[in-house]
Task: inverse folding
């Protein structure tokens, strides 16, 4: 199960076992004594009751702030609890007309931002292209948030229904809906309505677009005239499937926000559909959805309605064939709704993780731009970089200007570190003499403590802070990691080019920047006086530039970070030359003289 373990009481496993047993008992008693009898025969137009592959929706472990909802079985009064005899009165038969199309059709909604293609088979989305963004294919194509191959194989598409009854769900998601276009607005139509009924199950979906990345969708599902619990699902994969490093499956995760806390669940934390009852929904969510590194589809309640969203999520497995083998690949899926039998009315944001756009949403969604545990460093750097880019249109040159500013701010620290290293180098012979006197003692010998006391007394006498020599590096390291996070997770840096670099958020494909970083860092280390003449430390300083260059070649650090470090090193060469000239190291005494 997903979620956190309870602090006391029954374990999750035992709770799950009891829940299964009680649910099975209640449903068995209800079906035996209270359930309405099925009709003798269905009309010829009724859809098959065989569940399509991938249509089962699993229920996750309850998030800490959410409340599980067990929806009432089909045929009970709306709002009745399972097993509630008073709510199980059979409704009078209702005459429902059959509504269906006779062939599959497509319908396109288009604006300057997107091109969305619907199919009336299931009233689902077959393509959701974002016109302002390209994928990583060669040659590049307009980015499509929908994965047709995964959707075909798993049998589910975005905006298919998620129902408690598997037969009804399969029928509704395979049926041919009628299409009714709404009034045109701006560029293309702004409203479309799908309707279908087999005489027992009735479904309507209405989509309204306003030209932004946010649309409104309203869904009504009834069985024998009685409303049933329904949700809308994003199935069949999400995001940019052409990304090479890391693999797309590693980037996609389900998300939900409960009580102001954002939770992200990768596929490793999702259950399969067979592990939990499909009648469970978890309520109390501010929003829920699915995302990859740069794009997101979020289900939200109507603005200013005060409502919450109920959700459930799961994963399916599909086969992916490569040149030499066939692998199993997980596909994360999510559904959202009201959690009740009332009509589902939701807003859906499907687009880029643009910080400013997401911040304007109600509720705000800018937390979806994940800056990680160094957010307190990454976010200010991101905003500083965006501010710089307003005046310097190219992101690469903006990184260089920001680097120059940061290094000028940190220059006093470099001066302090340089002076500290000169002092430590001056007293290095005395430190070596102290260590020589105590080298015969083991580390756990009490005498070893005397060695540290003497060295610290020496530093205190000379006014040396042992950490002063490396303080500047200690400050730079969090900046490096924070900037790398800001560059890799900001949609603005995706596919941003600079000279030969085509994407500042990814590795340099020609490895020019990593090599330049290694050379420049080596030159800085050669110009900087060592605090000690210890051969092991000198060797480490020689290998450090090589290790840094190799890390940019073999690990997915952004080329934007390499550009920052290269610029810092070039500035460091100039600063160190100035310090060596204005604060020369004292000449060593001639051999044989004191």
Result:
């Amino acid at each position: 199960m997903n979620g956190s373990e309870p602090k006391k009481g029954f374990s999750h496993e035992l709770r799950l076992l009891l829940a299964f047993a009680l649910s099975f008992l209640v449903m068995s008693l209800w079906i035996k004594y209270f359930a309405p009898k099925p009709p003798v025969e269905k009309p010829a137009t009724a859809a098959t009751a065989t569940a399509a592959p991938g249509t089962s929706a699993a229920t996750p472990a309850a998030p800490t702030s959410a409340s599980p909802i067990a929806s009432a079985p089909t045929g009970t009064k709306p709002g009745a609890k399972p097993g509630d005899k008073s709510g199980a009165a059979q409704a009078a038969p209702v005459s429902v007309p059959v509504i269906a199309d006779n062939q599959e059709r497509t319908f396109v909604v288009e604006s300057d931002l997107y091109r969305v293609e619907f199919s009336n088979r299931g009233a689902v989305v077959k393509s959701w292209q974002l016109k302002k963004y390209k994928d990583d294919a060669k040659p590049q194509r307009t980015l499509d948030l929908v994965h047709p191959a995964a959707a075909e194989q798993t049998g589910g598409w975005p905006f298919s229904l998620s129902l408690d009854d598997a037969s009804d769900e399969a029928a509704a998601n395979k049926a041919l809906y009628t299409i009714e276009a709404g009034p045109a607005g701006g560029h293309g139509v702004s409203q479309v309505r799908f309707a279908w009924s087999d005489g027992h199950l009735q479904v309507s979906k209405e989509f309204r677009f306003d030209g932004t990345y946010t649309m409104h969708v309203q869904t009504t599902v009834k069985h024998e005239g009685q409303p049933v619990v329904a949700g809308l699902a994003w199935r069949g994969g999400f995001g940019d499937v052409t990304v090479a490093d890391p693999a797309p499956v590693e980037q996609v995760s389900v998300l939900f926000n409960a009580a102001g806390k954002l939770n992200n669940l990768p596929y490793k934390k999702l259950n399969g559909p067979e592990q939990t009852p499909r009648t469970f929904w978890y309520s109390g969510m501010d929003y829920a959805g699915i995302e990859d590194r740069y794009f997101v589809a979020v289900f939200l309640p109507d603005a200013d309605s005060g409502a919450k969203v109920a959700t459930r999520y799961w994963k399916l497995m599909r086969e992916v064939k490569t040149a030499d083998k066939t692998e199993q690949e997980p596909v994360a899926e999510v559904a959202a709704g009201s959690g009740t039998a009332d009509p589902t009315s939701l807003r859906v944001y499907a687009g880029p993780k643009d910080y400013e756009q997401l911040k304007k949403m109600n509720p705000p969604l800018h937390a979806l731009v994940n800056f990680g545990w160094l957010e307190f460093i990454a976010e200010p750097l991101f905003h500083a970089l965006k501010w710089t880019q307003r005046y310097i249109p190219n992101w690469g040159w903006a990184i260089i200007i920001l680097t120059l500013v940061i290094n000028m701010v940190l220059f006093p620290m470099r001066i302090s570190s340089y002076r500290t290293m000169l002092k430590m180098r001056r007293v290095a012979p005395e430190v070596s003499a102290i260590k020589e006197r105590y080298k015969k003692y083991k580390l756990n010998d009490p005498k070893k403590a005397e060695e540290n006391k003497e060295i610290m007394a020496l530093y205190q006498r000379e006014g040396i802070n042992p950490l002063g020599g490396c303080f500047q590096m200690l400050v730079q390291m969090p900046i490096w990691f924070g900037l790398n996070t800001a560059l890799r997770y900001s949609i603005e840096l995706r596919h941003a080019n600079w000279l030969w670099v085509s994407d500042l958020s990814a590795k340099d494909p020609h490895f020019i920047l990593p090599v330049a970083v290694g050379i420049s860092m080596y030159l800085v280390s050669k110009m900087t006086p060592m605090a000690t003449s210890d051969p092991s430390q000198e060797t480490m300083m020689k290998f450090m530039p090589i290790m840094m260059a190799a890390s940019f070649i073999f690990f997915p650090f952004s080329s934007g970070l390499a550009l920052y470090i290269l610029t810092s090193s070039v500035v460091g060469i100039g600063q160190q030359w100035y310090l060596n000239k204005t604060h020369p190291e004292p000449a060593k005494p001639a051999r044989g003289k004191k």
About this structure: The chain has twelve helices and 20 strands. Confidence is low (pLDDT under 50) at residues 1-62, 70-89, 589-594. The first strand starts at residue 67 and ends at 70. The chain has two domains: 98-370, 380-582.
